[in-house]
Write a structure and sequence with these properties.
7-stranded mixed β-sheet, alpha+beta, Aminopeptidase
C-alpha cells in the first residue's frame, strides 16, 4: 500500500490568500465547474478569515483550500478545491474535518454547502462525510447539503 504523503492544514488568513492567490486559484485549473477569480477569493464574508483553511505539502505547495464563512448560524462551505494530483489522498476530507472543528470552537453546530446537481462526484464525497440533502435544487439552482457538527 502506498503511504499517504503528509499535508499540514493551516488557517487561510487574508494575507495568505492575497499573497498566494495565484497558487490557490490554480487548484481549480482542471475543473469544469464555475471558477473563481481573485476578487471572489478575496471578497469579505462574515468570519471568512477565521474559518477558511488551506493544506500544503512538505515543500510548502498549496494542495487544497476550503473557503467558508458564517451564514445563518452555520459554517457555510463556499469552496473546497484539491489539486488534481492530491485528490483521493484525504486532503479534502482533512479540510472538511478541520473546518468542522474550527466552526464548533466558534459555537457553530451545522455545516452547509451548495453543489451543482450534475457534480455527482462531489455529492458522493459530501454524502460519505455525513452530509444530507436539504434542498434538491432544480435546473437553475444547486443542491443544498447540510450536516450537524459534533460538539
Amino acid at each position: 500500500m502506498t503511504e499517504v504523503p503528509p499535508v499540514c492544514v493551516h488557517p487561510l488568513v487574508r494575507g495568505v490568500a492575497s499573497s498566494r492567490a495565484g497558487d490557490i486559484l490554480a487548484l481549480e485549473r482542471d475543473l469544469q465547474w464555475q471558477r473563481w477569480d481573485e476578487a471572489a477569493l478575496l471578497s469579505s464574508r462574515p468570519s471568512k478569515w477565521n474559518l477558511s483553511l488551506y493544506a500544503e505539502d512538505a515543500a510548502g505547495t498549496i494542495v487544497g483550500v476550503a473557503v467558508a464563512s458564517d451564514r445563518d448560524h452555520a459554517v457555510h462551505l463556499h469552496r473546497l478545491v484539491v489539486h488534481a494530483d492530491w485528490r483521493g489522498w484525504g486532503v479534502g476530507e482533512a479540510l472538511v474535518h478541520a473546518l468542522g472543528s474550527r466552526a464548533v470552537q466558534r459555537g457553530l453546530r451545522r455545516c452547509t454547502l451548495k453543489v451543482d446537481r450534475e457534480n455527482t462526484g462531489a455529492r458522493r464525497f459530501y454524502e460519505r462525510l455525513g452530509f444530507n440533502t436539504v434542498d434538491a435544487g432544480n435546473d437553475n439552482r444547486p443542491v443544498t447539503l447540510e450536516r450537524g457538527l459534533a460538539t
